[in-house]
Write a structure and sequence with these properties.
By secondary structure, this protein is an alpha/beta fold. It contains 23 helices and ten strands. It is elongated and about 120 Å long.
Amino acid sequence: MAAQSKLLQFTPRNSTLFTAAGVAAYFLYRNAIAKPQKRKKAQEEEVKVVIAQHGQKKEKAMVNAVFFNQLSRILKVLIPGLFTKEAVYLFIVAVSLVCRTYADVWMIQNGTSIESSIIGRDAEQFKVLLFKFIYAMPAISVVNNLLKYGLNMLKVRFRMRLSKHMYDKYLNGFTFYKMSNLDNRISNADQLLTQDTEKFCDSVAELYSNLSKPILDVILYTVKLAGAIGIMGPTYMLLYLAASGLILTRLRRPVGRMTVTEQKLEGEYRYVNSRLITNSEEIAFYQGNIREKFIITGTFNKLIEHLNNFIFFRTQMGFIDNIIAKYVATVVGYLVVSRPFLNLAHPRHQNSTHSELLEDYFKSGRMLVKMAEAIGRIVLAGRELTRLAGFTARVTDLLKVLDDLNGGRYERTMVSGDSGRNSSTNLKSMALKPGSGNVIIQDHIIKFDKVPLVTPNGDVLIEELSFEVRSGQNVLICGPNGCGKSSLFRILGELWPLFGGTMTKPEKGKLFYVPQRPYMAVGTLRDQVIYPDNHAEQLRKGVKDQELADILEKVQLGHILEREGGWEAVQDWMDVLSGGEKQRIAMARLFYHKPQFAILDECTSAVSVDVEGFMYNHSREVGITLFTVSHRKSLWKHHEYYLKMDGRGYYEFMPITEDTAEFGS
């Protein structure tokens, strides 16, 4: 009785039909993972700290009106018009499906006639029908391979369209930066842009094939069978299709949610691995391999546990799918096809011979089997539809965030009122609105007029910052870590939104940033110097390679042209160049682009003082005004103003006089 009561409690909770063996297997499975789950609880808590979820809502994905609305919007991207390559491949697939269905009907009729001629010992008819089949084989093979070709090309075209659409949004302005630094709704954009996009496009194309062919089969076989066994036979099969489809769609609802969770966990697993590669040197110095292994294995175990649950659920659903969509459908088919033959009063076969009964039965039976298979495929296509709902939800989320970021809207979990700042500062930050400031584009001037220095988290570093710098007036920025130096540059570069006031600055192309650890692009040695320009843009500007060589000589890098094999040499420049060489390459970029203003963020820390002095003198000669962040005392003489922040919300902007220069030196 105790066992029975447990079973009664178990069954409604899972809403799934189990055999006795299935129930036993389920309990064994649960017992096998219960204890390991307890042991891994602390490990999972550690992983949650590393993979911050930022209060994201639990994803829901199911086949409903929301799903079809989302899918229709994405399909407008995949198929932008009737006169496109995607529409052509859709037409090719559709024609191939129609031809294949008619080929199936012809093969049933021809095959039945061949068997009838064998049973009737008609050698001449047998030869004629057999040669018909042989002649038809090349055409049927062409149809099958044309269908595969159209389907594969459709997947590629869908992926190309969707990827281009997403990257146009993702790489529009600074959207890629905002997604990683200002908005926390998408934590694994690389996963969504690559794997999820590919799986979504494959799923859409496969669903088009897996639904259109069975639907066409059902329509065609219904017409054929209506004349053979009466209209009620196909009607019963279609009623069974509707009933079984509703039951299975209800039972498959968790598949969409579990697909979303699977892709999210895959993204987290990729993230912790890429994080290890990115920070490998720092981790090695700290000897943090054991801790990183703990984090990675914890993330991997979460993924494996979910995959185990997903596989087990799909096994249960596979059992039910086979029963309902295949075997019961076959039973219904036998009942339907037997009616005209077992009913002696049926008018169709009252005067038929045994041979005619046999041929009619085989023909009707095979058509009904094909119809039952088509109905089964339509029912099972619901499984793929539910899985597609998961991918659709993921892709829709990414598109929504991209649209928001391109429209200047972002969402981020704000820091609490006592997380390192006083409560009054945070109350003031609550009244500030991102994007409420004004940006004025004007050449040869940078001016902040009552601009609050606010982080995306809402921390107010400086309530109102006001200063003005014109071309030719170099400014030295100083202050402790966390005082707002980097925040100032991010606002100036329009990476962060303006929370108020008015900022006057040149357009983006006339403001250049040189970081402490310069970015080395994928490409040739020439690409490193002219980045982000390409060779064609260099030629349009009228800059020759000899001028680039002169720039390298000025920053004492002329020797790398010969060392690396010329301008067309391709290397992993992040590893090939030393720290000082990379900083001098960054200065060469500055002299190539010749902007009105440049921000130097500790960018000469790995070069000698004499090289540094030459760089500052040459920048003044070519008309580049510098904002410098550096702790080197030797740099004070190259600047006219200093901007000092104390980290407590106060600042001073003053000209550098003999007294301040002596103080700085």
